[in-house]
Amino acid sequence: QVQLVESGGGLVQAGGSLRLSCAASGRTFSNYHMGWFRQAPGKEREFVAGISWSGASTYNVTSVQGRFTISRDNAKNTVYLQMNSLKPDDTAVYYCAAGSPSIYRYWGQGTQVTVSS
Q1: For the segment 52-68, what is each residue's pLDDT rounded down to a tens digit?
Q2: Of 26, 34, 38, whose CA–CA distance to 100 is shortest?
Q3: Among candidate residues 24, 23, 51, the one with its CA nearest the CA of residue 36
Q4: Backbone phi and psi for residue 90, each to the nearest 5 degrees, phi listed first
Q5: CA-based angle 44:53:114, to the nearest 5?
Q6: How far apart are CA 61 and CA 63, in angstroms?
Q7: 26, 16, 3, 15: which is closest to 96 by C-alpha?
Q8: Gap between the Cα atoms of 46 and 57, Å rounded
Q9: CA–CA dist 74, 42 (Å, integer)
Q10: pLDDT per residue as tens digits for the range 17-50
Q11: Contact at 8 Å (CB) between 105 and 53?
Q12: DSSP 61
């Protein structure tokens, strides 16, 4: 089992920045590929960004390219999502997840991000 706890969400004006953190406990964090997802009201949950177990490979969806950066610190069992130039369309509950690129087995409870115009 892996337990994931997100933090760092909040209310920010358009153009602002937030950094989300996801602290992991349980099984060896560095064994897992990590991802960030988000779910806006009335929409399905969507993938945002992913990072390999070593941190050497990262990828994200086109809509956040150049604005969001995923990173991890295996010594701290934490994965981060730095979000810059935020837009109202980024408003959602953000979730971190652990597993493999094809199957994310463990999920956090989510943190709310609200971007005002």
Answers
A1: 999 999 999 999 999 99
A2: 34
A3: 51
A4: -80, -5
A5: 35
A6: 6
A7: 3
A8: 20
A9: 34
A10: 999 999 999 878 888 999 999 999 999 999 999 9
A11: no
A12: -
